[in-house]
Fold:
Amino acid sequence: MDDIVDNKDKFFLKEEDALRIFRSIRWADGVYCPKCKSFNIYNRGIQGNSNKYSCNECENNFSDFTNTPFEYNKIPLAKIIYIIANMRSKSINKLAIELELHRNTVSRHHKRIREFFHKKHRNSSFDGETEKD
Structure:
């Protein structure tokens, strides 16, 4: 095994930093209900790695990860971000070794992320010509 695994702290985000960055992007305009878009929410606190919220308007319960490709993940967000950052340049096997995860786990997350971004891309409207390889 190469020395990348031994030096993983040099290229992995710390989990706290990954969560802080994710929340700052996800809630850039403030926390709002993904169902009714209301900003009238109640923060129920952190459970696991995620803040849990309730909407005071529609009574919907949601978390930081609701309606994102990170919803229902059991591996740390920092590792998922590493997969995203390297999914075009490294094989699933290489990522699995570096992250010390089973190949099937990395493959499942790789597929989920691709499908999420493909869905977002497909539903977007574009002006002008587009090309596909």
About this structure: Strands lie at 41-47, 50-55, 61-63. The mean pLDDT is 83. Residues 1-27+65-124 form one domain. Helices lie at 15-26, 77-86, 92-99, 103-122.
